Amino acid sequence: MSKLIVKPVHHSDQDTKLLSITPESAGWTYVGFEVHRLAAGQSLRCATGELEVCLVLLSGKANVTTAQCAWQNIGQRMSVFEKIPPYSVYVPNGDEYEIVALTDVEVAICSAPGNGNHSARLIAPGQVGVETRGYGNIERQIHNILPEQEPADSLLVVEVFTPNGHWSSYPPHKHDRNALPDESLLEETYYFKVQPEQGFAIQRVYTDDRSLDETLIVQDGQAVLVPRGYHPVSAPPGYDVYYLNVMAGPARAWKFHNDPDHAWIMSKSLAK
């Protein structure tokens, strides 16, 4: 299996962690990512240390507290495929958080270096930017959970719903050069959910010189590392695909470069 695919770890009743990516395990500098599944009544507590964190309630309801704040009974969707925006909580570095599950909960913990510039806050569904991007069979739904216009030190967090038979992260684009204002350097993780669960997504990760050139078959609950290169996604007919993206780099800006071979597709989109 490709080293770019991260599979879920063994899950026991006591250990809530389903999946873990650290800068050390990924071989990069900025992005960390975990997924935990808590049964009703279970809790998860952690100090943020030098990292800022965005807790995304993928499904279920919970109480969330930090050192200074508390939010009770947050969460509304029981599945990501309800396609409604999630509840999320931003927690700065030098803080702590506790999640107490009121129902079964799946929560994503997105992390990157923090500078202590922001306070903990709730990101309610009404604060999440919802947009439809693309046209035809490259149309997909976007939930901008923590875009660059909202306060954070490093993190960018977004989720994408790709209908069956459609493509997303398309036309192929990359953000692997620290060359602002034209392109930013951002590491990125993709966390996939597929409906029905026995399905799969297809993701290609490749560079201009093809020193990296992989076509990945990704299953429900797996993650993909995108250290560099273009990275389009396809949802096969019959299977809807969700993914949660986490990005971070030396500058908190999402400036991408389309593959020149396929950039013409955007001019067709603009003409519609």
Describe this entry's structure for a reader.
By secondary structure, the chain is mainly β. The chain has a single domain, classed as Sandwich (Jelly Rolls), CATH 2.60.120.10. Helices cover 4% and strands 48% of the residues. The strands form six sheets. A seven-stranded antiparallel β-sheet has the order 1-22-19-24-14-13-12, with no helix packed on it. The chain has a six-stranded antiparallel β-sheet with strand order 2-3-10-5-8-11. A four-stranded antiparallel β-sheet has the order 4-9-6-7, with no helix packed on it. A hairpin with a 3-residue loop joins strand 6 and strand 7 (70-74). It is globular.
Condensed summary:
The chain has 272 residues and is mainly beta. Helices cover 4% and strands 48% of the residues.
Overall shape: globular
Q: Provide the CATH superfamily.
A: Jelly Rolls
Q: Mind describing the biggest β-sheet?
A: 7 strands, antiparallel
Q: Under the CATH scheme, which class?
A: Mainly Beta
- What's the average pLDDT? 95
Helix proportion of residues, in percent? under 10%
> So, CATH architecture?
Sandwich
Q: H/E element string?
A: EEHEEEEEEEEEEEEEEEEEEEEEEEH
Helix/strand-derived category reads: mainly beta
Low-pLDDT regions: none
- Would you report the number of β strands? 25
Strand composition percent: over 45%
Q: What is the helix tally?
A: 2
Total domains, how many?
1
Q: Radius of gyration over alpha carbons?
A: 18 Å
Distance between the ends: 40 Å
Kindly identify the CATH topology: Jelly Rolls
Instruction: Give the spatial strand order of the biggest sheet.
Output: 1-22-19-24-14-13-12
